Amino acid sequence: MSSTGANLVPTETELIQCACQGDKEAFYCLVQPCERGVFTAAMSILNNAHDAEEVAQEAILKALTALPRFRGECKFSTWLIQITINEARLKLRRDRRHLYESLDEQQTDGEGEYFPRDFADWREIPSEQLQRMELRSALKRALDSLPPKYREVLILRDVQHLSIQETAQVLGVTEGNVKTRLLRARIQMRDALTPGIDGSWSTGKQEFEKVRPW
Amino acid sequence: MSVIEISCLEVWREISNYLDGEVDAELRARMEAHFKACAHCKAVVDGTRNVVKLVGDGFEYRVPEGFSKRLYAKIKGK
Q1: How many CA atoms lie within 13 A of A188 on its CB side?
Q2: Where are the beta strands (DSSP E) in B17-76?
């Protein structure tokens, strides 16, 4: 692995060139900064750390094989996430066919309207009132309660900060689909996290639960 | 300047696009006039904005311990 210019840190393009010539150290340097993003993308679909690691690592190895075909039409990290999303979906089909089909069925529903469930005021972010772990746990439960197609869009957009266009690309859907799903995901998250009108905590047994602990 | 009124339903449809800056200036002005007059929609937009911020700032999946080491070994063994 070599580097040009005054900066001794090799560029992404240089790492890709070296990796294409069989330099595995270069490939590892290339993918290491993407580890969290790849793992998170796998989690957004599989929601299981063991499966997500297996898929994330498999996707990275596939990227090594496919790297000579990477044309730089999108960011390398976006390309890697796209491969991961595809691998995660394949794994779902392979391992949990009946479950996947039932999810697919759900996914054909409800692309239409979604109305907010309540109108409790929630202007201040209560981060000061919360321990970080409590917040993480509340967010995790709210995310877990989302239908998968909403969870994956929300994670790609709001956790990984992919653009609408990149999100559409990695999921293989239109930008309009991304916007619609994002709307529903965000409003369902709000409904799950907003305290009730009287500030009390309630658990409704719908497709998601109110999980906000404050 | 007066703006054409917009219904709550239309506001809800566009709340996410509004937060992402994906609505045009005219629609933005109509939505903002609506928020001034409608406490319910103001609560929805404020709460949804909080969700975007909380998820963006406060959420992460923890990569399992040893992930990087196992990945390195697999790459070297490929």
Answers
A1: 27
A2: none
Instruction: Give the residue on B whose Cα is nearest the Cα of A59.
Output: B71
Closest partner residue to B55 (CB to CB) among A52, A115, A159 is A159
All domains of chain A in start order, with CATH: 12-105 (1.10.1740.10), 118-214 (1.10.10.10)
Which residues of A fall within a CB distance of 8 Å from B61?
A: 36, 39-40, 43, 49, 52
ipTM of the complex model: 0.89
CA distance A72 to A79: 9
- Segment B30-43, tens digit of pLDDT: 999 999 999 889 98
A180's tokens? 């619609």
A201 touches A210 (CB < 8 A): yes
A187:B48 CB<8 A: yes
For residue A152 the two structure tokens come to 């994956």
d(CA A99, CA A107): 12
Q: Read off the pTM.
A: 0.78
SS3 A69: helix
Cβ contact B51–A121 (<8 Å): no
Low-confidence ranges of chain A (pLDDT < 70): 1-7, 96-114, 117-135, 195-214
The one-character DSSP state at A196 is P
